[in-house]
Amino acid sequence: MSMNLAAIGYLVAAVCFILALRGLSHPATSQAGLRYGMGGMALAIVVSLMVLPDPSFLAYLLIIVGLAAGGTVGYVIAKKIEMTAMPQLIAGFHSLVGLAAVLVAAAAFLNPVDFGLVKADGSIKLLSLFEMGLGTIIGAITFTGSIIAFGKLQAKLPPAIESRLGALKGPVTKAMSSKPIMLPHRHVLNVAIAVVTLLLLAAFVSGESGFAFFLMTLLAFALGVLLIIPIGGADMPVVISMLNSYSGWAAAGIGFTLQNPMLIITGALVGSSGAILSYIMCKAMNRSFISVILGGFGETGAVAADDGDKTVKAGSAEDASFIMENAQSVIIVPGYGMAVAQAQHAVRELYDVLTNKGVEVRFAIHPVAGRMPGHMNVLLAEANIPYDVVFEMEDINSDFQQADVAYVIGANDITNPAAKNDPQSPIFGMPVLDVDKAKAVFFVKRSMAAGYAGIENTLFYTPNTMMLFGDAKKMTEEIVKAIE
Amino acid sequence: MEAIDPGVFNLIIFVLAIFVGYYVVWSVTPALHTPLMSVTNAISSVIIVGALIAAGAASGFATVLGFIAVILAAVNIFGGFAVTQRMLAMFKKRG
Question: Which residues of B touch A44 (CB under 8 A)?
Answer without folding.
Answer: 46, 48-49
